[in-house]
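2024-03-11 09:14:02 INFO receiving multi-entity request
2024-03-11 09:14:02 INFO entity count = two
2024-03-11 09:14:03 INFO echoing inputs for audit
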Amino acid sequence: MVRGPNPDAPDGEVLVSVNDLVVRYGDLTAVDGVSFTARQGEVLALLGPNGAGKTSTVETLEGYRRPASGTVRVCGLDPVTEHHSVVQRIGVMLQGGGIHNQMRVGETLSLFAAYYPDPLDPAGLAARVGLDHRMRSTWRSLSGGEQQRLSLALAVIGRPEVVFLDEPTAGVDPAGRVTVRELITELGDEGVCVVLTTHDLADAEKVADRVVVVDHGRVLADGTIAALTATARTSFTFSVEVATDSAASVDESALGAVLGAAVTDEGRGRYRVGTSPSPDVVAALTSWLAARNLGLGDLHAGRRSLEDVFLELTGDDADGHGENEP
Amino acid sequence: MRAWWAQTTSELRLTLRNGEQLLVGIIIPLVVLVFFSLVAIVPLPDGVTARVDVVAPGVLALAVMSSAMVSLGIGTGFERQYGVLKRLGATPLGRGRWLAAKVTSVLVLIAAQMAVLVPVALALGWDPTGPVLALVPALLAGAAAFAGIGLLMAGTLRGTLTLALANGLYLVFLLLGGMVFPLDELPSAVANVAQLLPPAALTGAVGDATGTSGAPGGATAWAVLVIWALGAPAVAAWRFRWE
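2024-03-11 09:21:47 INFO inference complete, emitting structure
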């Protein structure tokens, strides 16, 4: 399911703004001129491979790092110089939890509830993230997915206006993933501004109103999923049905000459045509096949997936970066 | 107030959940107190008749060292290593209330140690004969000095290194602090250096408050203690790294 843009989002107040942010660690430039904004009620995913600068960006918004240049604002405030005011209004989920090994689930929720003036009910929140049967379990004894769900609960217990989630589904099993995604979607619906980082395309596709694709510290694309995936196609693929005993095959250069575009063999009877699948092109293709008694198996001219966009933008194999994955 | 109290009770609960904290904080001082009060191993200083009169002040100093330096240092060191302090930095708790909670929990632990050790010492025949109210500033200054050392380790070293170093210092300070072996039994060069360290200064100050101890008291001991009580936390605050 691809969520459309939240109808309230365009009107919401800008709660997070990042303007030409540069973050450096010594000689290493982790973030190199990133800009974006996120509004009340909007779920924004910072999508990119590991090392893209996502965590550095989010940790600057949380007040842990100072920008080398550029500015960040959360609820209009500077996260470093106005840290005390910012932490009243944000919720944070760090990579790696940061909870004492021997703290129990119930104790941790109650402790964090005590930090905030008007917290959510710990027991109700535990039930919401599916940990109500684990209240007496220590952090150490929780599975990776349970730890992530507790961290998520702690990020929202103070009724924040802005929530920062760093890789919220990393290490979470498929059922837990559904719970986490539901909770994030609910937060957006309740008017919370959610900024999450992920290298998981499915996360971005399922929960985000808007995706900012980053790699090597730079923004490569910024828009709704619909906008990112709707840009004009530059190629399409088709397959031919060939009887196993037949030697018939597609002559790529001959077909390419007819269609006026490059045709490449992708293997197993599938070919890619380097032009958009306009009605004229499709008609020419089918009659060319018919003349050679080749059956058309399928023709894939649909919307690009976010994965296509992502791979095209980052020029990388997204799966090759999944080292945080279970 | 609510956040501070919740944090303090949480700190205390976690301390009690650790068996080794109980060992270092209560059992070892208790064993040292009883054993060295009853068994004639260490020579008695001139003019002292009851062995416990020398041992008890040292054991109170030892108890303060275990809570303020060992427990606090090791606990905080691991909290830093596991990102607990980093996570707290994104909550409204704040460093002020976090530190207040740490201080309160250490003071509660020390009070609990005193509540166990003092009655046992009295039962063993301890007869404090000094301005006993001076015990309070002595123990507080000692707690500040040792907490400064513990937090300096916790805030600059890895958790496992803090664990090793805090336990190592505990043993060295036990031997150099006049807690069990009177300082004048040590080679004079060693004793001269030891007098400038917080354990001997604290033992001496406690001895001033209760009559006698295994370390020299007087102005020198109090001055050394106060310098450490102010200096060690200041250096810890300056060098402490939260991540």
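2024-03-11 09:21:48 INFO post-check: The first helix of chain A runs from residue 54 to 61.
2024-03-11 09:21:48 INFO post-check: The radius of gyration of chain A is 24 Å.
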